[in-house]
Structure formats: structure tokens, C-alpha cells
Amino acid sequence: MKGYTKLVAELLRTQNVILYVNTCVLRVVMLDPESLSELEEVEVELKQVVEPKRPYYFQLDVLKAIAIAFVVMDHSLTWEIKGAMGSIFWERLSIPFFLIVMGFNMAYSFKYSGASTLRELYSWEYFKRKFKRYVVPFAVLYVGSILVGMATGLWTFNEYTLLGTLPFWGPGNWFIAVLFGSIVVFPITYWLFKKRPVLTITLCFLGEIILQAIMYLWFPYPIDSALEGFIVTAIRFNIVFFLPAVGLGLWFSKGYDLREKRNWFMYIYLPISVMFMVDYVTISPGTHSGVLGSLPNIFGDFFSFVQGFIIGDYTLIFYGYAAFLFLVAMMFIPEKATGTFQGFVQRVGRASYHILLFQIFYMSILYHSISFDDAIHHQIPNFALEMGWPSDLLYIPFYLINLTICLTGGLLWYGVEKRVPTEGKPWWKHLWTKRTGILFGSLMAIVLMSVLIDIIREVIGFNDITGLGAIASILAIIFFIGLSMTLMYKAFSMDGSYDITM
């Protein structure tokens, strides 16, 4: 009886079938009748043994590996070189690929978690998983950024710190804010999608359109003030700005075959995106008119208006092209990794977040070492000019060296995080991890104090020692120093029995 139960359970597990066996079915299957109590025990055992298993798609790891390789390339080459290579049609696909994959993974993650209500989707378990996945590695990067900033004296804390900008800036830093925002937005997006798929995707596209309209009407280029610059940056760091691509991934999670009727819109979306991309790369400096926008008719006027209204190259008018390539990859790349090379690509895809973080750290040091002015202004240095290269062809080995360093550092980081068991516990539950986390919180209290004082100085000012600005600053100092000291006391007073629920 017991052996037969295990055999049936194993067979059902391999087919990824959600098992529900009632006592009536068991009575029919079993040749030797058992008592009702034993049948109920068997049913419970089967339900515990067999659970729905989330399908694995090697295609997603391939796309993430390609995307991270493009990210390193994006930060290794100047805009002039990338533009001459037609980068918008291939190299600039990195972020759209990441976003579409995020939407696709979101659907499967929530589906196989069993959560259906908003209360279940916004569960404590969900936030714990995201904290370990995104926040903890970022905290490690943040500490490293502070240490480098202290050593060089080039660290910065201001209102942009609230958006997730590192004290020692590195290229690609902005995407961290997008990831953190996704933690809050994704559950309700999935919940709406389950109820009203078409409406949800429409709202995803409408979200970017509204944000673009806000910038177009109230904060047009050129930016007039520091406050306007911060608002525009906050909008562009917002996950809502990128929801069209995420929504496409969510939609394709229900079927990624181009021949499906539900994907018919791609045959319209793709050519529209290609036309706008062609127009975009031919726009003359200081205008919004490319080869299509310069046509002397309403057709040209439409292209010029859209190019002036939708600013940037990670926007809804370009996602159709990236979505088409995503579907092609999902249809023709195998679902399972086979062979040594595919296994390596799989590891790169899974470690893509850690590679991104390591790339931010490594390239930040490289930028500041090559050109201080470019790094301060968050620009890509002209490496050939700064380093005296005899030919731009040296960008090829330069990129390959950067890629090797970033892949190696990120893969090692990811491997250590996955393989550091101490005292029979996962690394995030160990005493030293908890102590480090609390000390990081103590450090961040001082950082937030500096940011708040800077904001008070800009908004209220320090006209008088007894004025509102001075009093608010003093209160901020007292609060955050008290918080920092409290956290430091907790960290150093911890022993092996101290526990933090994570």
C-alpha cells in the first residue's frame, strides 16, 4: 500500500500534475480495501508529496545573459561608436529584454506560489524573498561604494540618494531603483492581469504615456532648475515608466507563439516600432525630425510629434521590436540547457543581477580612474582619447576585458552567496549576517540624516539659528544619531541566541 502510494506520487510529480485524490478514487484504484482512516492518511500523504512544479525556460537565461553582455558593452563604448554601429537595433535591447523577462517571470512566480488575493500576493513571505534576492546584494554593493567613496573623497549624499543612487556613482545604477519599485508594483499588476488581462496591459501602456505627458507639458527640455531635474529623474527611475515592456512579458506568459491569435497585435506593433527606430536614428541634432518625420505631410508631422512627445530609447514605441525578438527566442531556443557552453550561459543568466551590481562597482572605479570630469557628470569617458589609443579598434579588446572581469566578479559573488553554509544555517540567518545588516542600517541612518539636512537647506534655508530650518535640522540630527546608536548597540550586543525574523 505505502510503496504503491509513493510510486503513484512520483509518476504524477514527473508530469507536473496538481494532485487531488479523494477517498472514492482511492477505493476504485486499490485492489485490497483499506479502512477509511488509512485511506485518509494516504490522501494526505499524496497531497504533501506532490506539488506543482514551476516550469524552467532556458530561453530566459539566454536572454538575460545576452542583456548583461550588452549592458557591459553599453558602458564600455562611447555614444558616437555605438550610434555608428546601429546600436538601437541590437545593443540597446538589454533593458527591454530584462523588463520583458521580469514580466514573464512575475507571472510564473506568482502563479506557482499559489497566491491569488492581494493579501496573499503582498505576503510577508513575498517581501522576505525579494529582500534576500535584491536588497541584501545591493546592501553589499552600497557598503563597497561607501568605502571607495571614503578612500577617494568623492562620495555624494543628496536628494538622489533617496532614489537609490550610490554614494560613489557607477553606470547602470538607475536600474536598481526600477527593480526596487517592481517589488511594490508587481503584485497588484499580476492581480489585475488575472482578472482583466487586456485592461491591465492597456493600463501598463497608459502609465508611461501619462508620465511622458507630465514631462512634455511641465518639464520639457532643457531643464530649468535642480528641482525639475530631480523630478524628471524620479519619473525616469520609476517602474511605472517601464511597465509597457513588463506588461508584454506578462502577456506572453499565457502563450509565446507568434502564430497564436492572442498575439496578432505583434504583426502591427513590430513594423510600427521599426519605423520609429529608423526615424529615431536619423534625427538631426536639436530637432525631433528623422527621415520619416521630415516628410512634408501629416505622416511626417505625426512622427515628429511622437518623437518629441515620447523621449528616450527605452520607451513603448520601441518595445515592439524587442518583444518580437523575445518571442523568436522563446520559440526557437531549447527549453533545457545541454552541454558545457549552454550550462555556462545558464549560470550567467541566473547570476545576471549580481553581474549587474559588480559591473556598476567595477565600472564606477574605471570611470573615475580614466576621466574624473566624465564620472562626476555621469558620462561615458572617451577611452580612446583619454588613454591615447592609436585606433578605435582597441575598443574590442577593451570591451572583452571588461566583460570578462564583470562576468567573473558577478559569478563568484553569486556562487559565494549560494554556497556559504555556516553552522547548518543559510548564510542570511547566520549571526554575522544579521549583525552586518544592523550595522548597515546604522550607517544608512547617518546617510539619511545628511540627505534630509540637505533637503531642509534647499527648501527652508538657514537664515537664523532659531529659525525653522535650523530647528528642523537639529531635530533630524538628534533623531537619526539616536537611531544609529541604537542600531549599533543592538549589533554589538547580539549573541548566538539573538534572532531576527527574515
How do the helices and strands line up, and which of them pair or pack?
Blueprint (H helix, E strand, L loop, with lengths): L1 H13 L8 H7 L6 H14 L8 H17 L4 H6 L9 H20 L4 H4 L2 H29 L21 H22 L1 H22 L7 H11 L6 H10 L13 H16 L16 H12 L9 H14 L7 H11 L1 H19 L1 H5 L6 H4 L8 H25 L11 H29 L8 H25 L10
Gist?
The chain is mostly helical and 502 residues long. The chain has helices at residues 2-14, 23-29, 36-49, 58-74, 79-84, 94-113, 118-121, 124-152, 174-195, 197-218, 226-236, 243-252, 266-281, 298-309, 319-332, 340-350, 352-370, 372-376, 383-386, 395-419, 431-459, 468-492.
Q: How many helices in DSSP terms?
A: 22
Main sheet attributes: strand count, strand direction, barrel closure:
none
How many strands? 0
Distance between the termini: 41 Å
Radius of gyration over all CA atoms, rounded: 26 Å
Total of domains:
3
**What is the helix content?**
55-70%
Shape: globular
Summarize model confidence as the mean pLDDT: 84
The structure class reads mainly alpha
Helix/strand order:
HHHHHHHHHHHHHHHHHHHHHH
Low-confidence stretches: 1-50, 497-502
Percent range for β-strand residues: under 5%
